[in-house]
């Protein structure tokens, strides 16, 4: 796959008017191929692989919040980056998820072509599925390069998306506690 991608990147560079034989560009198609494969490697991962069995029995039903998980994704419309932070909360029911796995779940879905709304939902559903929690809340903030570097070229706007499942959807108090804990 890498060689095929590199060939296509070389062709794109030529079409853009570049001399693909000049010194600085000789290895660029190969580097670009590696980079795009890394940025989309979420397609080749599964939730089971990412969680790796790190679900632990724990006698707790109090809210757990993991906040400010940075993410880098690519918008499915322009294949340009959107980047930001993700905050995840859940109400466990006797099972907790290993802390690092929240970031791994975020990365697995972020490293695919996405819209922010869909990314938020996929993360929430995955956390719900692996923890069996009474409720899950996910809030994502993102800045979209397709809106900053091109198009309307607005540098200050950002997008906030949220998905509330179970008790986070049903109870204002639970949702508000989440928002308070992340300082919103
Ligand atoms: N809702 C949502 N929209 C997104 C996201 N990423 C990019 N977009 C938008 O997708 C839309 C695509 O619109 P089109 O009119 O088909 O494409 P375009 O001509 O390149 O649009 P402009 O960006 O307005 O120049 C744009 O409004 C983008 O801002 C996202 O994560 N969520
Ligand atoms: Zn875009």
UniProtKB/TrEMBL annotation:
Start and end residues of each GTP cyclohydrolase I domain: 7-182
Pathways involved: Cofactor biosynthesis; 7,8-dihydroneopterin triphosphate biosynthesis; 7,8-dihydroneopterin triphosphate from GTP: step 1/1
Molecular function GO labels: GTP cyclohydrolase I activity
Any matching Pfam family: GTP_cyclohydroI
Primary enzyme class: hydrolase
NCBIfam families listed in its UniProt record: folE (TIGR00063), PRK09347.1-2 (NF006825), PRK09347.1-3 (NF006826)
Subunit architecture: Homopolymer.
Name of the molecule in the record: GTP cyclohydrolase 1
Organism: Paraglaciecola aquimarina
